[in-house]
Hints:
There is one protein chain. By secondary structure, the chain is an alpha/beta fold. It folds into two domains: 22-136, CATH 2.40.50; 137-171, no CATH class. The protein is built from four helices and eight strands. The strands form two sheets. Strands 1-2-5-6-4-3 form a six-stranded mixed beta sheet. A two-stranded antiparallel sheet has the order 7-8. The model is unreliable at 5-33 (pLDDT under 50).
Amino acid sequence: MNRSALIAFSALILVACQQQPSSKSGRGMVGHNDSGAPRDVSALALVANPSKFDGLTFSVKLYYPARGSKIMFAGRDRYEMLDYPSAVLVSYDLTRIPEGNYVVSGKFQASREDRSGPVPMSFAGILTEVSVVRPAPTMSEAEKDCPGLACRIEFVDGLTPQVIYSPVEKK
């Protein structure tokens, strides 16, 4: 291959590489829908590998224990076991919301240790620039809200839970 062909080929490779999307490019989102809103990330994936999500904006479902807590857990069971490495610090005033499951959207900063308190503790990281904190209903709540025999919960195609309302017979 002559020198000018090699230079042209190298330039082509450089241009092609620069046009490849990166998971940390653009708006810094793991993924987004057509409106630009952040997509969901699994809480388990987040706490298992926080550095993978460092600097990215996304939504995640977390459990909030209330009681003035500044942290949210990857689930109620993680809270019950005081599994702090499965917890995320949230830079948002959570004091007015009750205990429960929430969808939280924000920018994640991976950090395995917090030294601000009297005892150093490990956390998955911190969510900053929080834009959304909204309730995330659970299947247990949906079953409680189901009015007796008038509805049931079934999985559509075995994958997606859906509440099926049946007509109530009048006597």
